[in-house]
């Protein structure tokens, strides 16, 4: 886990711990301020309808997707397919190894 005092990064994968989407994974696509971010998963929560989320309601992972971060920095946007790919890659590599 990361220190809660640090600022979230673009492309960082998070697990939602509060709200309707509890226990699902998403990616930070915009940092609004020190308290709120916008997240999307590319499937149920698309980029054009990203969810504004309080950072106290998400659990940050140590994984930052370079594809998503570079896409947002270079073009200012990211595709839903890239989000789905990054989340599924993270799930396959990390969570399946842990036995979940």
Keywords:
single chain, 100 residues, alpha+beta, 5-stranded antiparallel β-sheet, 2 helices, 5 strands
Characterise this structure.
- There is one protein chain.
- Helices cover 29% and strands 28% of the residues.
- It is built from 2 helices and 5 strands.
- Strands 4-3-2-1-5 form a 5-stranded antiparallel β-sheet.
DSSP, total strands: 5
Query: Roughly what percent helix?
Result: 25-40%
What is the global morphology?
Answer: globular
In whole angstroms, the N-to-C terminal distance is: 18 Å
Number of helical segments? Answer: 2
Q: Report mean pLDDT, rounded to a whole number.
A: 90
- Report the structural category: alpha+beta
* Main pleated-sheet profile: 5 strands, antiparallel
Work out the radius of gyration: 12 Å
Order of helices and strands: EEEEEHH
Order of strands in the sheet with most strands: 4-3-2-1-5
Give the uncertain stretches in residue-range form.
none
Strand content: 25-35%
What is the gist of this entry?
The mean pLDDT is 90. 29% of the residues lie in helices and 28% in strands. It is α+β, with helices and mostly antiparallel strands and 100 residues long.
Layout of secondary structure:
Layout: E1 12-16, E2 25-31, E3 36-40, E4 51-54, E5 58-64, H1 66-75, H2 80-98
Antiparallel strand pairs: 1-2, 1-5, 2-3, 3-4
């Amino acid at each position: 886990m990361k220190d809660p005092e640090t600022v979230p990064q673009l492309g960082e994968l998070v697990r939602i711990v509060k709200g309707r989407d509890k226990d699902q994974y998403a990616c930070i696509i915009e940092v609004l301020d020190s308290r709120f971010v916008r997240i999307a998963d590319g499937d149920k929560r698309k980029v054009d309808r990203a969810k504004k989320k309080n950072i106290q309601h998400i659990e940050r992972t140590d994984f930052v997707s370079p594809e998503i971060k570079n896409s947002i920095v270079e073009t200012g946007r990211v595709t839903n397919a890239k989000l789905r790919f990054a989340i599924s890659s993270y799930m396959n590599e990390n969570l399946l190894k842990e036995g979940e």
